């Protein structure tokens, strides 16, 4: 470990095989792409509120711009923000620390995974600037629109977009195999399956769900790429193909993907709320089993995205039932979290605020999902802003709220310094309040029948509801306010990196193993490899002088 | 790796497995020559399943691997069965699709 | 085995732990194969649906060369035998013998790809191109994806054989063997799907 000091900048930070550096690479790339994705959202929301007006920092939005902005906002936020931050970034950084070992089992595979991911990031960014502009066929890329440049007008953008997504899948397959193998084989002595922190379990289940669901879409992406580049007819009905097939292959992955990012977010919330309520996690095993159940049931619900695509109505009924069933395990987990909070000594630090906000906001997303999961109501609400509001009430808590909970909670461990608490709370309220003002109006707009993916309602008098224009402006103004508050976070983050108050090893008095390592952990993580003696959530155990009982302390 | 040495004694005779596979291969080629669809189904796909299981069990050593690796691989296959069951009603038959009224006589016409 | 590694790359403690009792490399390989099953599974499930939906595909399938496909099945089965015999040799610590068997496996892969090239050439020259019908699109996509796996397997087999000949990383002989058998097993299904059933 002494030779780590002599490494050059390049081998230490760029071509490192250390899981912490790779985790931070993923994290910073994800945060950067978060800024890109937010900027795209800002541009098209401005266009919707003030159609035809030049947008500051962008200019006049053309229809092709608009489609590319919406498409890449969706794709970037899911594949280049939620996935790298929640799974690859935090997973890489925390899994070896939380299970008490020195690195991932395949460090060089891990580095390759990031390099492929980085390449995919470059490709998606380049695809926005090629002749014809970025791909505009929505993040779901339904053929025939996506399959033929004749329809989508993006001969370069569409294939590059698809290649970027495919590279991203490869990166996460490599990463997922590494995560699962590491947790299965490299746990500290004494750490049985029921002593693994919930966050680690969630990343493992998410990786397995990802691995099992993405295969058909990889095959489907090869077929779509052939349609785009070679001119084959996999999805062309006039030559015997079937565009519905793509929808099935896409959503067979696309819906489990929701749970792939949701489960790690729930894991983060579980870690944070136990520490800041000083109570044992309520029903560890129930949470674990419901997470498994969620992962399995998530494979049975995909066609609820296709109720209006002309699928077999008998199948639509089946998928309605399974979709409503999946809310049961998720509700169960939410109840377990509320039961954990009940009677705890709650301390409202910034990470705890984010975790509580997650539960509250995700609840709205979950409850509105019932209307979309049931085929009868979905046929009315489909492709309206109600859908947009619904999935932002799920994905925003997942990717952004849980992401901030994790960043603020593990910041002292990652960088050895504290973030400023006051600025953190200003940022929290400055994000949560505008967030609701963006998306609550969209529920109203959607219920009033407003279609999504429309460049300018002035072009479609039947779809235009002038009386609701104020709500569109309200949503856009709230978005701008929310984005401005993110500068508070950026300032706080960067300032705290260099000038924050020094953090000791275990500032939150938490039990899990990562808090045993120095802050920040050196190469190799632990001075002495820990042994585990108990589960991760032994807080306020009666008869003990301290209200926490770290996993590595002998009885 | 002393554990592997004891496993080695349990290894099958690979050449015998190989010869069995060749016999099965011959059946899978010859069966369809009879021209009966059910015979083809059994000799081509039934035999393929047996062959793949033999390769997995004896060549990939799943017979001496932890049991849950079987479960893992079979779960993945089961998910593919699920995909097929969910997608086939739409791609395979257009019976539930009602945006276009097709008369029975037309739908029986050959493709193209 | 860790001694020979140490000079090249410091193997972390994590890689040497085995809480499940399955060596880490092999455990990861099973997950790789699990993810491969769903990739081929998605493609073949799509193919089977279309196949059942389009009765005329049986006529198209009758133009595939059953003898070329059959010979290739035989070649892959034989190369699988070499791979598993190489594994047996590696288990007994005989790296040179393992390397010989692995190189024979590579020859099997070469023959397979050679036959495939001749076969494709004949089909394309007779007008059975990827554009002729969706059956042929699936045929070239599925056998092409499988051929890509054969090619990757051959390259890795060659590298592992080079290591094994010097007595290094003998545990990898088993791993690449398992992968090769998987590629063989995929072909076992491709053969009836595209050649026999007509």
Structural class of chain A: mainly alpha
**CATH class designation of the domain at 14-196 in chain A:** Mainly Alpha
Model regions low in confidence, pLDDT < 50 over at least 5 residues of chain B: 1-8
Oligomer: heterotrimer
Q: What share of residues are in beta strands of chain B?
A: under 5%
Specify the helix fraction band of chain B: 55-70%
Number of domains of chain B: 1
Topology, number of strands of chain A = 0
| Overall body shape of chain B | flat
> Architecture of the domain at 14-196 in chain A, CATH level 2?
Up-down Bundle
Q: Brief description of this entry?
A:
The complex is a heterotrimer of chains A (555), B (112) and C (198). Chain A has helices spanning 9-14, 19-49, 63-98, 107-126, 149-152, 157-185, 198-229, 243-277, 284-297, 313-341, 350-373, 375-381, 385-415, 421-447, 469-499. With 555 residues, chain A is mainly alpha-helical.
Break the fold down into its secondary structure elements and pairings:
The complex is a heterotrimer of chains A (555), B (112) and C (198).
Chain A: H1 9-14, H2 19-49, H3 63-98, H4 107-126, H5 149-152, H6 157-185, H7 198-229, H8 243-277, H9 284-297, H10 313-341, H11 350-373, H12 375-381, H13 385-415, H14 421-447, H15 469-499
Helix pairs in contact in A: 2-3, 2-4, 2-15, 3-6, 3-7, 3-8, 3-13, 4-6, 6-7, 7-8, 7-9, 8-10, 8-11, 8-13, 9-10, 10-11, 11-13, 11-14, 13-14, 14-15
Chain B: H1 2-8, H2 14-30, H3 37-59, H4 67-91, H5 104-107
Chain C: H1 2-6, H2 13-16, H3 24-53, H4 57-61, H5 66-91, H6 95-125, H7 134-165, H8 171-196
């Amino acid at each position: 470990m002494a030779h780590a000091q002599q490494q050059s900048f390049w081998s230490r930070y760029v071509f490192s095989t250390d899981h912490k550096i790779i985790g931070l690479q993923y994290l910073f790339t994800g945060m950067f792409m978060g800024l890109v994705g937010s900027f795209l959202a800002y541009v098209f929301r401005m266009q919707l509120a003030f159609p035809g007006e030049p947008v500051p920092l962008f200019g006049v939005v053309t229809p092709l711009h608009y489609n590319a902005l919406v498409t890449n906002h969706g794709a970037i936020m899911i594949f280049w923000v939620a996935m790298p931050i929640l799974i690859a970034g935090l997973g890489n950084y925390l899994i070896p620390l939380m299970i008490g070992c020195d690195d991932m089992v395949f460090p060089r595979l891990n580095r390759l995974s990031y390099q492929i991911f980085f390449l995919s990031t470059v490709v998606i960014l380049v695809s926005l600037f090629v002749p014809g502009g970025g791909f505009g066929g929505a993040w779901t890329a339904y053929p025939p629109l996506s399959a033929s440049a004749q329809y989508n007008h993006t001969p370069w953008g569409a294939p590059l977009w698809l290649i970027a997504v495919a590279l991203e899948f490869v990166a996460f397959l490599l990463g997922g195999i590494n995560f699962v193998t590491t947790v299965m084989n490299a746990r500290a002595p004494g750490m049985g399956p029921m002593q693994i922190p919930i966050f680690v379990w969630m990343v493992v289940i998410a990786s397995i769900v990802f691995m099992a669901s993405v295969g058909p879409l990889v095959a489907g992406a090869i077929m779509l790429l052939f349609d785009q580049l070679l001119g084959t007819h996999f999805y062309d009905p006039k030559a015997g193909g079937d565009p519905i097939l793509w929808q099935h292959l896409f959503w067979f992955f696309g819906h489990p993907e929701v749970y792939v990012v949701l489960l790690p977010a729930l894991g983060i919330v579980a870690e944070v709320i136990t520490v800041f309520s000083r109570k044992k996690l309520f029903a560890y095993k129930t949470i674990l089993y419901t997470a498994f159940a969620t992962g399995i049931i998530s494979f049975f619900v995909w066609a609820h995205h296709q109720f209006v695509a002309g699928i077999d109505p008998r199948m639509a009924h089946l998928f309605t039932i399974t979709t409503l069933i999946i809310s049961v395990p998720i509700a169960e987990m939410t109840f377990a979290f509320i039961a954990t909070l009940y009677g705890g000594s709650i301390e409202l630090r910034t990470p705890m605020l984010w975790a509580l906000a997650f539960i509250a906001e995700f609840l709205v997303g979950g409850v509105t999902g019932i209307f979309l999961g049931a085929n009868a109501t979905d046929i009315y609400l489909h492709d309206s802003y109600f859908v947009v509001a619904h999935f932002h009430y799920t994905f925003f808590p997942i990717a952004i709220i849980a992401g901030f909970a994790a960043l603020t909670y593990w910041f002292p461990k990652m960088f050895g310094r504290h973030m400023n608490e006051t600025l953190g709370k200003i940022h929290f309220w400055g994000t949560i309040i505008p967030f609701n003002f963006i998306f609550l109006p969209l529920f109203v707009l959607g219920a009033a029948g407003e279609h999504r993916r429309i460049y300018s309602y002035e072009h479609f008098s039947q779809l235009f509801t002038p009386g609701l224009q104020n709500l569109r402006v309200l949503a856009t103004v709230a978005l701008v306010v929310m984005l401005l508050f993110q500068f508070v976070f950026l300032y706080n983050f960067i300032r705290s990196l260099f000038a924050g108050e020094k953090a000791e090893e275990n500032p939150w008095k938490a039990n899990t193993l990562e808090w045993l390592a120095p802050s920040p952990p050196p190469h190799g993580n632990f001075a002495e490899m820990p042994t585990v003696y108990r589960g991760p959530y032994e807080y306020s155990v009666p008869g003990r002088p301290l209200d926490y009982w770290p996993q590595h302390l002998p009885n | 790796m002393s554990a592997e040495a004891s496993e080695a004694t349990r290894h099958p005779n690979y050449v015998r497995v190989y010869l069995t596979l060749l016999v099965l291969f011959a059946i899978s080629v010859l069966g369809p020559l009879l021209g009966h669809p059910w015979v083809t189904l059994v000799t081509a796909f039934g035999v393929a399943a047996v062959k793949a299981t033999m390769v997995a069990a004896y060549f990939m050593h799943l017979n001496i691997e932890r049991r849950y690796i079987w479960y893992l691989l079979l779960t993945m296959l089961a998910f593919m069965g699920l995909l097929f069951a969910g997608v086939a009603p739409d791609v395979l038959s257009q019976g539930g699709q009602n945006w276009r009224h097709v008369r029975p006589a037309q739908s029986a016409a050959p493709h193209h | 085995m860790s001694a020979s590694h140490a000079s090249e790359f410091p193997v972390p403690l994590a890689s040497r732990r085995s809480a499940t009792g399955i060596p880490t490399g092999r455990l990861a390989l099973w997950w790789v194969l699990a993810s491969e099953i769903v990739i081929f599974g998605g493609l073949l499930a799509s193919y089977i649906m279309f196949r059942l939906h389009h009765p005329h595909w049986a006529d198209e399938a009758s133009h595939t060369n059953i003898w070329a496909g059959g010979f290739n099945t035989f070649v892959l089965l034989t190369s699988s035998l070499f791979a598993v015999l190489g594994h047996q040799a590696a288990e007994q610590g005989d790296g040179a013998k393992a390397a010989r068997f692995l190189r024979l496996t590579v020859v099997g892969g070469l023959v397979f790809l050679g036959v495939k090239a001749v076969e494709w050439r004949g089909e394309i020259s007779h007008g059975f191109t990827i554009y002729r019908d969706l059956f042929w699109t699936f045929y070239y996509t599925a056998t092409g994806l499988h051929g890509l796996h054969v090619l990757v397997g051959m390259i890795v087999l060659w590298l592992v054989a080079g290591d094994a000949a010097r007595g290094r990383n003998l545990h990898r002989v088993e791993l690449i063997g398992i992968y090769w058998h998987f590629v063989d097993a995929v072909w076992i299904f491709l053969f009836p799907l595209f050649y026999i059933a007509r």
